[in-house]
Amino acid sequence: MSIGIDQINFYVPKFYVDMAKLAEARQVDPNKFLIGIGQTEMAVSPMSQDIVSMGANAAQSIVTEDDKKQIGMVIVATESAIDSAKASAVQIHNLLGIQPFARCFEMKEACYAATPAIQMAKDYIAKRPDEKVLVIASDTARYGLNSGGEPTQGAGAVAMMVSQNPRILELNDDAVAYTEDVYDFWRPTGQPYPLVDGALSKDAYIRSFQESWSEYARRTNKQLDDFASLCFHVPFTKMGKKALDSILTDDINDETKERLTNGYDAATYYNRYVGNIYTGSLYLSLISLLETHENLSAGDSIGLFSYGSGSVGEFFSGQLVDGFKDVLDIEGHKALLNNRTEISVDDYEAFFKRFDNLEFDHDVELADEKNEIFYLESINDHIRQYNTLNQ
């Protein structure tokens, strides 16, 4: 049975800050952000957009009325949980109007959780081929104003429909996971921002990739020549490139090096203008690859590396399906990114503080919103109330 990603979509808030202007405000050489970490713009999340509303916004355009009857499971992967008990999947299930007899839950392992969610969905569909699974990765990456991690922030969500006979990417049974207990990035309970050992995190990421790739190659007898392109978890665009370069050794032919390097550039184009969205970063990269790469064809093998600090990494692969381009919303995604509103550094800081303090300013944050979106309207007695705009 062929099982994989049948539909995929992303959502990002409509606000962003220019990284060169942020660098100047922080008295940093702009090239440290633009070239050093490879980021041009950073999505800024208003208080009216949290993991529930962003997740629902990412999913709403790919969930049809028939899908609502067929979805047997909704999984949300996040490390930005808004509740220590109730799963955001339950709230998204309600907003989307999915049939009531669906299993809904939330998964956590830093930025990695969407990948085991997809693997779980794949196993579920193998036993229930007439059903579908909605997997959502939704996060707001926040490190604090003037912090070392500030330029690697971002916000957004990716929604994926997993089913039999997928129209985009057929997943192979070849995943290899690598687990190592390391404190490179963590957020203790009650801590508003994560704690990060930047140098250790980069080393742990690259080691996790090298170990999982090496074991994958040993088990499957595959080489880099077998892949049209590779996608990586992208906390910032230079991170995955460092990992890729680490295996493009002298014994790899120049054609393969060029192909994979060009593929990496295509796969990180969207990420460059969004920033880090944690659990969704790998899958935003996949969308970017599929929509901006000019030379992909049905049957091409795509390798994917997922990483979550702490740490777990996984390398797996899939084959592109005939007609995959027809299922993608290329124009819609370009419009979503191109029609955002740039805000000043001062306004970005005001947004950031409102988010921390749970303070709403709908007159500012919902002004001139032209898309039909879900948004967080209020919080009363710790209960979050969501509404829809332009519907």
TrEMBL record:
<dbReference type="Pfam" id="PF01154">
    <property type="entry name" value="HMG_CoA_synt_N"/>
</dbReference>
<feature type="domain" description="Hydroxymethylglutaryl-coenzyme A synthase C-terminal">
    <location>
        <begin position="257"/>
        <end position="386"/>
    </location>
</feature>
<dbReference type="InterPro" id="IPR016039">
    <property type="entry name" value="Thiolase-like"/>
</dbReference>
<dbReference type="InterPro" id="IPR013528">
    <property type="entry name" value="HMG_CoA_synth_N"/>
</dbReference>
<protein>
    <submittedName>
        <fullName>Hydroxymethylglutaryl-CoA synthase</fullName>
        <ecNumber>2.3.3.10</ecNumber>
    </submittedName>
</protein>
<dbReference type="InterPro" id="IPR011554">
    <property type="entry name" value="HMG_CoA_synthase_prok"/>
</dbReference>
<feature type="domain" description="Hydroxymethylglutaryl-coenzyme A synthase N-terminal">
    <location>
        <begin position="3"/>
        <end position="164"/>
    </location>
</feature>
<keyword id="KW-0012">Acyltransferase</keyword>
<comment type="similarity">
    <text>Belongs to the thiolase-like superfamily. HMG-CoA synthase family.</text>
</comment>
<dbReference type="Pfam" id="PF08540">
    <property type="entry name" value="HMG_CoA_synt_C"/>
</dbReference>
<dbReference type="InterPro" id="IPR013746">
    <property type="entry name" value="HMG_CoA_synt_C_dom"/>
</dbReference>
<keyword id="KW-0808">Transferase</keyword>
<dbReference type="GO" id="GO:0004421">
    <property type="term" value="F:hydroxymethylglutaryl-CoA synthase activity"/>
</dbReference>
